[in-house]
Amino acid sequence: MKPPVRVAITGAAGQIGYAMAFRLASGEVLGPDQPVILQMIEIPPAMKSLDGVRMELDDCAFPLLAGMEAADSDHLDQGFKNANWVILLGGLPRKAGMERADLIRVNGPLFTAQGKGIQAAAASDVRVVVVANPCNTNCLIAMHSAPDVPKDRWFAMTRLDQNRGQAQLAQKAGVGVGEVKRLAIWGNHSSTQFPDFQNATISGRPVTEVIGHQEWLRKDFIATVQKRGAAVIEARGASSAASAANAALDTVKSLVNPTAKNDCIAVAVHSDGSYGIEKGLICGFPIKTDGKKWSIIEGFKIDEFAQGKIDTTVNELKQERETVKDLLPK
Ligand code: NAX
Question: What is the distance between the alpha carbons of residues 212 and 191, in angstroms, rounded to a whole number?
Answer without folding.
Answer: 25
